[in-house]
Design goal:
This protein has 197 residues and is mostly beta strands. It has one domain: Sandwich (Protocatechuate 3,4-Dioxygenase, subunit A), CATH 2.60.130. The chain contains two helices and nine strands, in the order H-E-E-E-E-E-E-H-E-E-E. Strands 1, 4, 7, 8 and 9 form a five-stranded mixed sheet that branches. Strand 5 and strand 6 form a beta hairpin. The protein starts with 29 loop residues before the first helix and ends in a 17-residue tail after the last strand. This is Protocatechuate 3,4-dioxygenase alpha subunit. GO terms for molecular function: ferric iron binding; protocatechuate 3,4-dioxygenase activity. Belongs to the intradiol ring-cleavage dioxygenase family.
């Protein structure tokens, strides 16, 4: 079969290069569609070794982002990357290394989890993803445990004088990790190859 096309002499010529159009932003539907029972409790409160990881998400003006969604992935305390199903239906005893938390009216999020161990000799960290109104893509970053004298890894060194935006701060037995989406205290975000940017 052969396809043939005809052109109308009166029809305007199409431009050879089309200008890209903007993608659609995500949200603000996180509080409606994505939370689930136990989403922010990677372990039950009171579990031996349980730790509170918390912080706030702020915009470029330093104002709280009230409808963001923060996800974390992490290794278990021995540094093993957990590959177990069950993150969306907590059974109360299986540690899956994944959690999801929406921010409240003050931009605050909080997880009950375990302190991650170092994977293959690296520094221990939480992998963090942020979804928020107005973002075309989710944002990726890391929340490293306080260094406590350890040498920074290559990623921390590459962040230069902004490396402190990737470090958790000890907060009376908890860990605090604030996320700035823009502005003076903008968190260092990472490019993820599969995002297609």
């Amino acid at each position: 079969m052969t396809l043939t096309t005809t052109t109308d002499a009166a029809a305007p010529a199409l431009p050879t290069a089309l200008a890209p159009t903007p993608g659609q932003t995500v949200g603000p539907f996180f509080h409606y569609a994505l939370p689930y029972d136990g989403d922010r409790e990677l372990v039950a409160p009171g579990t031996p070794g349980a730790l509170l990881l918390h912080g706030t998400v702020t915009d470029g003006s330093g104002l709280p982002v009230r409808d963001a969604l923060v996800e974390i992935w992490q290794a278990d305390p021995s540094g093993r990357v957990v590959q177990r199903q069950g993150s969306l239906r907590r059974d109360g005893h299986s540690f899956t290394g994944f959690g999801r938390c929406t921010t409240d009216r003050t931009g605050r999020y909080a997880f009950t989890t375990l302190r991650p161990g170092a994977v293959e000799g690296g520094l221990p960290f939480f992998a963090v993803t942020v979804f928020a109104r107005g973002l075309l893509h989710r944002l990726f970053t890391r929340a490293y445990l306080p260094l406590d004298g350890a040498e920074p890894d290559a990623l921390l060194r590459s962040a230069g004088d902004r490396a402190d935006t990737l470090l958790c701060v000890d907060d009376e037995g908890a860990l605090r990790f604030d996320i700035g989406l823009q502005g003076e205290r903008e968190t260092v975000f990472l490019r993820w190859p599969r995002e297609g940017r």
